[in-house]
Amino acid sequence: MTNEEKPRTTRRLAFAGVAAAALAAGLAGIYVIGGEDGNTQQVAACAASAEIADAVAPYATGELAAFLPARERRSFADLRFQDDTGAETTLGALPPKLRLVNLWATWCAPCRKEMPALDALQAELGGDDFEVTTISVDQGGTEKPKGFLDEIGVSHLAFRQDPTMKIFHDVRAMGRAPGLPSTLLLDRNGCEIGALMGPAEWASEDAKALIRAALEAAGKQTQESGS
């Protein structure tokens, strides 16, 4: 190994170590946001998400090979951010539906690259049962992230943001966002079905097959419950 290669190797190993530690922390136990009673209630509400995670596991392949089906019952319903009016809200306060929640920022090159695919996925599969929910963590006002979305022609994604970056730190504390972009697939109760840490081709047939499998599994649950 040359002297020039050593720093690059060291950096790669360091990043891998950080990512592995974050993932291990997330899998170490059940962790949800909120008080003790809220945790118990949210974890109980997440029982159904495990069935959907099992249903989509065979579809974590190809362009979605990095997708990790959830192994624990974990709720993200209390994650806070701002809607397009600037009002504070939570994932749990949004209409109940399957959600692909993507954390991004304009200074993140992979985030910028995958945004058109997320917009295309929303255009094709978005509706009453599914939504791509992108949340900008750019610090400052809305001018920069909104300007970027306008520039690349994004027209199907509702604008949401958290300029404090607290949502990113909360998700990272749960072992699900070692960096940006990070994406969570959540059921209608805000419970984790799976996660993908890093960019993906969200408009690919692999991605659409995984989302359709999740929608089918969720639909079966709704029919069985009679709700």
What do you see in this structure?
- By secondary structure, this protein is an alpha/beta fold.
- The chain has one domain: Glutaredoxin, CATH 3.40.30.10.
- The protein has 7 helices and 8 strands, in the order H-H-H-E-E-E-E-H-E-H-E-H-E-E-H.
- The protein has helices at 5-27, 36-45, 47-56, 109-125, 143-151, 166-173, 205-225; strands at 68-69, 80-82, 88-90, 98-104, 130-136, 160-161, 182-186, 192-197.
- The chain has a 6-stranded mixed β-sheet. Strands 2-3 form a two-stranded antiparallel ribbon.
- Strand 4 (98-104), helix 4 and strand 5 (130-136) form a beta-alpha-beta unit.
- The radius of gyration is 18 Å and the shape is globular.
- Mean pLDDT is 86; it is low at 4-38.
Number of individual domains: 1
Low-confidence segments: 4-38
CATH architecture descriptor: 3-Layer(aba) Sandwich
Q: How is the biggest beta sheet arranged?
A: 6 strands, mixed
SSE succession: HHHEEEEHEHEHEEH
N-end to C-end Cα span:
62 Å
Tell me the CATH superfamily: Glutaredoxin
Q: What fraction strand?
A: 15-25%
Structural class: alpha/beta
CATH class: Alpha Beta
In helices, the fraction of residues equals 40-55%
- Please state the CA-atom Rg, rounded to the nearest Å: 18 Å
Number of strands: 8
Form type: globular
Helix segment count?
A: 7
Please state the average pLDDT score: 86
Strand order of the largest sheet: 1-8-7-4-5-6
The CATH topology is Glutaredoxin
